[in-house]
Amino acid sequence: MPQKVPFDIIKKYSKYLSDRVSEYISRASHDIDSIYTINDIRLARFSLDWLTFQQQLISTAVQCSKSNKWISLQGLIEYCSKMMEISDPTLGVFSTIYGATGAFDYYNRIDSSSDIDYFIILVHEFDPPIFWSLAIHEIAHCWLSSKDVVMKISKQIHSGLDIKYQEGRIEEAICDAIATSFIGPPYPFAYIECLWPVFNQFADEHPHHSFRVHLMTEVLRENGFNKTANDIEEIARNILVYDWADEEIVDSIDLIKEAACQTSFKFTLDSMTEIDYDIVEFTSQPPNDVRCLFNVGWKLINNAPDNRYFNVFESVSNIIQMSLEGKSTAFKP
Ligand SMILES: [Zn+2]
User: Fold this and answer.
1) Å from CA of 311 to ligand 1 middle
2) What does the alpha-carbon distance between residue 219 and residue 170 come to, in Å, rounded to a whole number?
3) In angstroms, what CA-CA distances link 187 with 112, 136, 146, 262?
4) 332 CA to middle of ligand 1, Å?
5) How confident is the model at residue 217 (pLDDT cuts 50, 70, 90)?
6) 71 neighbors 326 (Cβ within 8 angstroms)
7) What is the pLDDT of residues 274-298, one digit of tens each?
8) How many angstroms is it from 296 CA to the middle of ligand 1?
9) What's the average model confidence in pLDDT over 308-315?
10) Could you give the CA distance from residue 150 to residue 137 in angstroms, rounded to a whole number?
11) What pLDDT, in 10s, does the model give residues 8-51?
């Protein structure tokens, strides 16, 4: 029997928020000191903003869930969350960006917390499923919510950056390392293919692309994917203009690699049980294991002759979508 998650949990959380709004308003009308009234009104407004956000989320999620593509995405997200032992429900939503709620900062701003929690993973709506390894970086943000690994690593380095940016960059780098350690080459391949056009731009809260790609190759080597790591380094040399060693948080690289490669859910070259597929075999009987599915898929795409590239790309993406559909326990609301 499929669990009635994660839609029910959003409805429950919305109910919790609306109860809080009424409570704050009623308290504000009885406050004897105006300073408390102002505070209660502020809390009511903040809860109301969150409530509006939840309502938007429900309607977007309901809209998304009408497509088979969403059921497949949910299949991948549920698979990853289970492997990473993320206990809170995790819901995928198609958007125009990649992102994750991680820990809600809502709790830090009100005077009590709810025991209802769930995560939202935003995935770019137009990306074919072969690029969904990028969602694993977002799931890693949620995984980090219950860990102190960012702070621990941050305390051991001196980047010269403002602490907010130092921690932000370390968190982003850990999520890249976790995603690479979790699924292997499909994450760096999707990262390079998808983000190529914006490779020479970077924001303060993200490490330089050259550092991020270098870290991924280090993680791949640690997990036995030496040949792929060399291939990616070769690609990176041709497209990246910055030296990875110039990144401010460079001293954290070994600590980050260690944190990602010591997890129970890492995926090594030895775990690849199903390798020798051609596109006909892949289409008729794709690998059952999700991680092998993505790895074999990318191998077929990378080995496709130029004149067949787009056909293979599309076939692999379709097969991945169909295979993931069966992995989801999500129901339609
Ligand atoms: Zn991120």
Assistant:
1) 31
2) 15
3) 38, 8, 23, 18
4) 29
5) very high
6) no
7) 678 899 999 999 999 999 999 999 9
8) 26
9) 94
10) 15
11) 777 777 888 888 889 888 888 887 778 888 888 888 888 888 78
Distance 247 CA to ligand 1 centre (A): 17
Q: How do residues 41-95 score in pLDDT, each as one tens digit?
A: 888 888 888 788 777 777 777 777 788 899 899 999 999 999 999 888 888 888 8
Q: Which residue has the tokens 């129970």?
A: 264
Distance 106 CA to ligand 1 centre (A): 19
Which strands form 90-95's sheet, in the order they lie side by side?
90-95, 119-124, 99-100
Ligand 1 centre and the CA of 206: distance in Å?
8
Distance 191 CA to ligand 1 centre (A): 12
Spacing, Cα 101 to ligand 1 middle (Å) = 10
Interval 180-193: pLDDT, tens: 999 999 999 999 98
Encoding tokens for residue 93? 């939503």
Please answer whether residues 317 and 286 qualify as being in contact, where contact means their C-beta atoms are separated by less than 8 angstroms.
no
162: left (phi over 0), alpha (psi -120 to 50) or beta: beta
